[in-house]
Structures are given as C-alpha cells and as structure tokens.
Design brief:
Strand order of the largest sheet of chain A: 4-6-5-10-11-9-7-8
Strand content of chain B: 15-25%
Shape of chain A: globular
Largest interface: A-B, 44 and 29 residues
Radius of gyration of chain A: 21 Å
Number of helices of chain B: 15
Number of strands of chain A: 11
Number of strands of chain B: 17
Oligomer: heterodimer
Structural class of chain A: alpha/beta
Distance between the termini of chain A: 19 Å
Number of helices of chain A: 16
Distance between the termini of chain B: 74 Å
Largest sheet of chain B: 10 strands, mixed
C-alpha cells in the first residue's frame, strides 16, 4: 500500500480496499517508528489527522470524494494551518499555533485530504541542507549520515522514506528541486503566481513559490490541480483559466511521445562545478530523451554566473523586512528578561533566530541601507532582469531546458555547515529559475554510489503541464523514480 | 536689526473616508474597543498578505483631479522599515519614489473680508499609505498596551512645496485643504479623532537670501489654533537662537499646547534609515485613463469653479461667493434656496444664508446639514420678501417660526398668523389719515421743520398696521399727505 501512487491510493479508497482512517493510521505508525531517526516531522497530531480521515471516509461513503480525498499529505511547516503549531523551523515560532489556514492548506482541506503532519525545514526556509532548523537536522533516508537537502528537507525525507505518499514544499532558490534531487523525488516549482502565497510564511516574497513533492510526475500533476489557482488574498497570484495538469499525461502518444520537442542544454550547466558522477547520470537521461523523440540543442544563459550573487542580495533584502514582524510583541518568542523596549527587541530576536537567519537579516538590512541601496539592491534587480531576458531568448530556441538540479549528490551532515558560501553554491543551477519566475522540476535520473541524482527541467512561463508531461514520458520508460531507500531498521 | 523671512512647507495626513482598511477588509470606524477591528492582516500574523483597497485609490484620484495634479499612471508601494510596537509588520506600506499624485496647486485666501489676498500653494506630491496602531501608555502600570484598530487605516499624505511665508498662510492653506478634502468627500476632516493632522516644516532666512535656512519639523498639529501658535513660537525661537549666535539643527519637534512651546523630539543624528524598497507583496498600482475619467465624471464642482460661477451666475460679490463655497453643504444649501426663491433673489438669498442662517447655526453650534430650516423653506421665505408679501422684519419672525417648527413653509405661517403685508394704497391711506388726525402736535412739529417728527409718524402708522404695511408705501404716502 505504501508504495502506491496517488491514483492507486484513490482507487483503493474508492474501492473500499482500505479506509482513510486505516491509511492514515498506517502512516502515523510509520512516522512513530521511523521519524525519530529521520527527524522529518516537527509536529504530528494523530487526533487531528484521524479526525480529517474520518471526515474523508464519510465523504467517500457519500460518493462525494475527489482525487485527493482521504489521502494523507505531509505539509511543510511553513504553511499556516488552523489549530496546528506552525513553526517555520524556528524557535521564534516554537510556541505559535496558527489561528488561520494558508490557502494551500485550505485547498487540501477542501479536497478532503488528510494533513499527516508538519515537516521539518531549514529555519524560515533559509538553507540547502535542513541543518538550520531549530528542531534539529533532517537525515537523508538514503544515508542517514547525509543531508536530505533543503529547505524542504523534511518533506523530501518523509516522502522518500514512505512516511507520507506526497508532501508540499516551497522553493525560493531551489528548496523543492534540490531536496527532491537528493532524496530521489519528483518536485515541481510552478511559475511564480500560480500557487497562492497567502498563509505561507514569507522568506523572499518575490521568489517564494509552493509546489508538490512526490514520487512521480503524475502525482505532482494531481497535487498541482488542487494547489494552483487565483487567490484574491494574494496580490501576486495570477488570475488565469484553471488547467487540468493531468490531461496531457493521460493521452496515448506511441513510442516517440516527445517527437519534435527541443531540449535546450545551456553550456553554463554543463561546464565546471558539477561532479562527474551526477553529470554522467544527466547525460544518460538526455540520451533517453533522444530515444523518446526529443532533439537537444546547445544554448547559452550568459548571465547565469550572476544568479547566486544577485539572489544573495534580493532574497536577504526581502527577508530582512519580512522577518521584522517577529519582534516578540504580539506572538512568538519573547526573551524572558529585558530592560526596555529596544532590549526586548534585540534579546527576543537574538535568542529567537538562528545564525543563518541572523546572517541573512544583516545582509538584507545592509544592502537596503542608505548609500548602499543603488550599488547592491538596484544592481541585483538589474541583473535579475538580464537573467530573465536570457531565458526569454533561450525559449526562442527550445521548448524546455535541462541540466543537473544539484551539482552533487547528498553531502554529509556538517560538511558545509561551517562554510555558507559552499552551501549557497548547492543552488547554482536552481536559483536563476526563481529570479526569472519560471517553472522548474527535478526528476530522479539515477543513483551514484547509492545516492540519487536529479535532472532539472525548466519550462517557459505557465508551461507546468508541458514539464509534467515531459517528466512523465521519461518516467514511463525508466524506473529511477520508483527506487526506494532501504527500509530503516 | 535684520529682517527675517519665514519659510513653511506642510505635510498633511488625511485619513481617507473608506469603509475598510487600505490592505485588509477590517472596518475603519472610530471608537471601537481595542483590537476588535484588527484582522490577521492588521496584526501581521505570519504568512498574511496585503490586498489594496480600490476605494482608497479612488480617493487619491479625486484629490489629484481636485488640485490639478498628475495622477500617476504607475505608482509603487514601498516598505518603510522601522521597529515600533504599534507597527505590526515592522514596516509601514507607503509610497516612496513613485507616488500616486504628483504636483498640483491649491489656491488659498489669506486674511479676512476685503483685505483677503489670494495665493497659490504648490503641492509636491500626495501618496497613499497605511496608518500605524496606537500605543496606550496609561492604564497599564509600567507596561504599554497596543491597540491595532487604527493599524492599516488608509491615509493620503499631502506634501507642499516650501511656499508659505507666515503662520497665517500656513493656517489658510491647512483650512483650504481641510475644506477641499471634505468637499470632495475623501476625508471627514475630524481633527479631534486624528483624521486630519499636519506637520509643519519651518525655517527662517534673512530677507533677500536665496538659500533656505535649516528647517525643523513640528509634528502632529491637530488644530488650526495650535498650528498658528506652534509656528509663531518656533519662528520666534529660531530667530532668537540665530540672533544669539546659535545655529539651527535639523530636528523633529513637538508642540506642547500647555506651555505654548515647541521642544525637540529627535535630532537628525538619530534619524532612522528606513531602508525603503518596493513592496514585493503588491504589484505596481496602475491607473488607466478610463479610471481617471470615471472619477472625473463623478467629481462635484470644485470650490474655486463654484465660487467663480456664483459671481457670474448670481452676480454675487467675491466675498459672498467665497463665504458660500466654504463647504459643499453650504454651497448646495444656497443653490437650493435660490432655486426656490428665484434667481432674481440670488443676492438676498446670499445674505440670508451667510448672515441670518449662519448666525443662528453658530449660536446653536450646528452644521448646516442639521439646520431645522431647509433650503427650500428659506428660499420660499425670500420669495415672499421679493414679491412684497412680507417685509424684512416680518421675514425674520417667520424665519424664527420655521426654525422652531411652527409651520411647514413661510406661506403657511404667513397665512396662519395673518402676516401678509398691506399693499393696498387705499387701506394705507385711510390708516395714515387716522394717524394724522390723532397726532396734530407731531404734524405741527414736522411742518415747523423737524424731520424727526416724520419718523415718529411713520412709526405710528406702522404700529397702526401691526407692522404689516409696506414700509416704502407708508413713507411715500405720508410724505405726499404732509406735503399737500
């Protein structure tokens, strides 16, 4: 049961092979048994989950189910969920119970899905290894001495270890794609504005985007159907006609399903910086794509090398302002002893935030400050436009862009923790996609020394359906996405 | 001794008269229990996002049109970052580099009556922003209470060029702006409740010097009287400081009404670096020409245009026209009264509204919208003076009767109380004959050249007519008879 995909689970529920309560209990039991080793979840609330499962069973019995009804999903702890502790991986919100639902949570609820628990993450989504969480690092189920990636590391580890059929993630610079790559998952970061940000705790507002993390493109498509859509409570959400992201996947297209598809290979993704073992697996995947009828063309994204520096100006700038509300005044952590107002602010924030968050707040405040704004923030915005223009030009030559998701497979816990710049470089292939606001995916493309590697797919604006289809056709002829790590003892 | 010139620029925060807040659906009504009008967005829970209230934008457009400014096709909301307990997000959403209204002018009247001088004050800009909450320092021994009802209330910050040269000009500007924002319905102008508050940037320079002196900003002036007092004190303090060999340091100051003095709150050194940047949660505000034209069509006629029209259409003096256009309610009242009285009575209507009615309202501290005498009733009354049905004196009695609700119209009261003026010259003649016969001594005095006796005889005749005889006719007939 636990290795079935979402459609199969929906069938099992509809066919009364299993009830939602039983399915939910199955996963709760696995979490109870395996989470202590993985630390993938920050909060599990069996009673709440089972109550949702009971409601789902009634709904299914009444014949009013929809594709996600009764299926448990792990929710990244960045989404506010009414009545649930919502920490964002921080001591600052260690005591915060949300009084309202994020739009994403409300949409899963409306679909009758079960929230199986809130997953661990880098503090305020700042990190690429899930080591910056106040609640401790998450372990990679493929090798528990290694990181699962971040910031959606808890979601990735939970799904990879079969503690949940699928999970939500958020991606500001690669936080869905990189952990998906490191944990052998299929993850999609949609076009900026496709999924509502309301109730998703902001890291960098102009970059943050929520998306699905699952074990196949098909599962991601089903989840995106539930997650996407205009939300009047998010001014940056886009009012577009609703799409069925599954439609294209269901068509039968013969043995050359991708005939005519042009895959762009940016030379900047295939030079130095990527480990040979990951590059080998990416090349093998591209060979597979050619067999499916696709054609590869060499392209260039000349400003790629500027994406990491531009990102590390823009994201901290927005974060420094977004995190100002955590001041100990109305909710969240307040230092127990302080002498006056300023002392309360500084002590609460000094004690409530971890090192990486403080580092980024300082960088952000610096680049926005008087006299530096033009040189840093404005300059970074100009670079951002150049990067976006690179992609516009590239998509005149190709339909999708491919390359590695992450330069390496999962690294050891602690390996990069002391060197922020090394850590920041884990996202060299993913960050430009956020700066441009494009949709991006990572799909499993093989194992190197037993560790998964990811192939990154980048689409033009609103090309989620095409990306999912391109991923799906590969998954129809390969089995990498079906690989599981050995069950933990 | 040196001559000093005063230079003043004013920033005004006008609270916009919208039902809900600028970035959330919470009510903006004044006076509710603390924090009952504070939603998840207003208290800045994690994850919440702002959504712009179009009604606030509409107010900004109306203002831009009213002052002949450019309504920006694209403006941008920016975050002004600073920590304060009543600022829930740790930043205020405002507009910085690209405001919604650019430029514009306001014509003000400085001085009273015939001595009034017109002056044009240039506006720099007006931008939309949200208000903060309130810190409550009383009632919480050693602690501070936070009330976020006001957090997120829409404000239009209106900034002038440093165009004013005296406290009188500053106050005249503030009054004209106050009248205008109420006129176009974007602000209730309630200064006690903080709906309209001004900051004055004040500096002095030797007459003839080109460069401005260093300015100090007087914050939160919430009455015109305080504004005058604060600026006068500040100017005198600045001049005295310079003349004593001191220098003015740029600073923010507060006015203490009790002492009548201004005192520095913070100097430039501890000025904040607000780290403004465009708010990534909000798209640029785009206002297309259609929207502007729709707003223009919905605008009331503006004070200056109305004033000029009153002078042309109703042959009023500039003074009367200005008095009648002090507020939209006043002007509407006047025009309704004229419509009822007839255009020929435009001038007497103006007198009745600006003198009799205004005095009566003033006496009872009522707004014109609360006048017991309606514009139609007043017009009906003036019409009866014009057609000689009643005299001015009788009209005043009828006005009082209408005020007290003794009748539905002047006509009804005239009828009921038999106040119709006697204009039948036969009847008046008979009365005069009786008066002459009864007062031979007065007649003799008049004939001996005493003009005073004539007035006494008129008085007797009016008394005999119970005040209802047409005074002009009485005069004419009496003179005729005495001259015979």
């Amino acid at each position: 049961m636990i290795t079935r995909n979402l459609s199969a689970l929906a069938q099992a529920l509809a066919g009364k092979e299993i009830s939602s309560v039983e399915l939910t209990q199955l996963y709760l039991d696995r979490i109870a048994r395996l989470n202590p080793q993985l630390n993938a979840f920050i909060t599990v609330d069996a009673e709440k989950s089972l109550a949702q499962a009971r409601a789902a069973d009634q709904r299914l019995a009444a014949g009013k189910g929809c594709p996600l009804t009764g299926i448990p999903f792990a929710q990244k702890d960045i989404f506010c969920a009414k009545g649930w502790r919502t920490t964002c991986g921080s001591k600052m919100l260690g005591n915060f119970t949300s009084p309202y639902d994020a739009t994403v949570i409300a949409k899963f609820d409306a679909a009758g899905a079960v929230n199986i628990g809130k997953t661990n993450m880098d503090e305020f989504a700042m990190g690429s290894s899930n080591e910056s969480s106040f609640f401790g690092p998450v372990k990679n189920p493929w090798d528990i001495s290694r990181v699962p990636g971040g910031s959606s590391g808890g979601s990735a580890a939970a799904v990879a270890a079969l503690l949940a059929p699928a999970a939500t993630g958020t991606d500001t610079g690669g936080s869905i794609r990189q952990p998906a790559a490191l944990c052998n998952l299929t993850g999609l970061k949609p076009t900026y504005g496709v999924v509502s940000r309301y109730g998703m705790i902001a890291f960098a507002s102009s970059l943050d985007q929520a998306g699905p993390m699952a074990r196949s493109a098909e599962d991601c498509a089903l989840m995106l159907n539930a997650m996407a859509g205009f939300d009047e409570r998010d001014s940056t959400s886009l009012d577009r006609p609703t799409e069925d992201y599954c439609a294209e996947l269901r068509t039968d297209v013969g043995n050359k399903p991708l005939a005519g598809l042009k895959i762009g290979l940016p030379r900047e993704f295939f030079g130095e910086g990527c480990t040979p073992e990951v590059m080998q697996l990416v090349e093998a995947a591209l060979a597979e794509y050619r067999k499916l009828g696709a054609e590869t063309v060499d392209i260039s994204l000349p400003n790629m090398k500027l994406s990491v520096p531009a990102y590390y100006v823009i994201a901290p700038a927005e974060a420094s302002s977004n995190l100002s509300r955590f001041d100990g005044v109305r909710y969240g952590y307040r230092a127990p002893n302080y002498s006056d107002l300023n002392d309360m602010y500084s002590k609460s924030r000094a004690q409530g935030f971890g090192a990486e968050v403080k580092r980024r707040i300082l960088i952000g405040a610096y680049v926005l400050s008087h006299g530096y704004y033009d040189a840093y923030y404005l300059q970074a915005q100009r670079i951002r436009r150049l990067i976006a223009n690179d992609f516009v030009a590239a998509f005149k030559q190709c339909d999708v862009i491919m390359g590695p998701t992450s330069p390496s497979t999962a690294f050891k816990l602690g390996e990069k923790a002391a060197d922020p710049v090394q850590m920041y470089l884990s996202d060299i292939y993913t960050i430009a996609v956020n700066l441009a606001g494009l949709p991006g995916m990572s799909i499993p493309c093989g194992l190197a020394q037993g560790l998964p590697a990811g192939l990154q797919l980048i689409g033009d604006y609103f090309d989620e359906a095409r990306l999912l289809n391109v991923a799906h056709r590969y998954q129809q002829v390969t089995g990498w996405h079906l690989q599981h790590p050995a069950e933990l003892a | 001794m040196k001559q000093w010139e005063v230079v003043i620029g004013i920033e005004t925060h006008a609270q916009l008269a919208t039902q809900s807040k600028i970035f959330s659906g919470s009510s903006t009504a004044f006076g509710a229990e603390p924090n009952v009008q504070a939603s998840a967005v207003d208290i800045a829970l994690p994850g919440v996002l702002p959504v712009l209230n179009k009604a606030a934008v509409e107010c900004a457009i109306r203002f831009g049109l009213a002052v002949g400014a450019t309504v920006a096709q694209k403006s941008v909301f920016a975050r002004k970052n600073y920590f304060y307990p009543d600022l829930p997000k740790g930043y205020q959403i405002s507009q910085f580099e690209l405001p919604v209204v650019v430029g514009g002018q306001l014509v003000i009247q400085v001085g009273q009556g015939d001595k009034a001088v017109e002056k044009t004050v240039n506006l720099t800009r007006a931008h939309l922003e949200e208000d903060a909450g309130k810190s409550l320092h009383e009632d919480f021994q050693g602690k501070t209470g936070i009330d976020l009802n006001r957090a997120g209330t829409p404000l239009l910050e209106i900034v002038t060029e440093p165009d004013m040269r005296s406290s009188a000009e500053a106050v005249a500007y503030a009054k004209a702006l106050h009248a205008l924002v109420r006129w176009i319905g974007i602000c209730d102008g309630n200064m006690q409740e903080g709906s309209f508050r001004c900051d004055a940037n004040v500096s002095v320079r030797p007459v003839g010097q080109k460069e401005f002196g260093t300015r100090r900003e007087i914050k939160n002036l919430n009455s015109f009287r305080f504004m005058q007092q604060a600026i006068d004190y500040e100017v005198q303090w600045q001049i005295a400081t310079i003349e004593d060999g001191g220098r003015i340091e740029q600073a923010t100051v507060l006015f203490d009404p009790a002492s009548g003095e201004t005192r520095a709150m913070r100097s430039k050194e501890d000025a904040h670096d607000y780290r403004y940047f465009p708010d990534p949660d909000l798209l640029p505000l785009i206002i297309d020409q259609d929207w502007i034209e729709r707003s223009r069509a919905a605008m009331p006629e503006l004070p200056v245009a109305k004033r000029d029209r009153f002078v042309t259409d109703y042959a009023l003096s500039a003074y009367d026209a200005a008095a009648l256009t002090a507020s939209l309610d006043f002007a509407d009242y006047y025009e309704t009264a004229v419509a009822a009285a007839g255009k020929a009575s435009a001038k007497p209507c103006a007198n009745w509204v600006t003198v009799d009615l205004a005095a009566r309202l003033n006496k009872e501290d009522r707004e014109i919208s609360e006048s017991p005498v309606s514009a139609t009733q007043l017009g009906g009354l003036v019409a009866r003076i014009a057609d000689n049905t009643i005299s001015n004196n009788i009209a005043k009695k009828i006005f009082e009767a209408l005020w007290n609700g003794e009748g539905r119209s002047a006509d009804e009261i005239i009828e009921k109380q038999g106040l119709k003026q006697i204009t039948d010259s036969g009847a008046i003649e008979t009365m005069i004959d009786e008066v002459l016969t009864a007062n031979p001594a007065m007649v003799a005095e008049f004939k001996a050249g005493k003009e005073k006796a004539f007035n006494a005889l008129v008085g007797q005749a009016m008394k005999a007519a119970k005040g209802k005889a047409n005074p002009q006719q009485v005069n004419d007939l009496l003179r005729k008879k005495l001259g015979e």
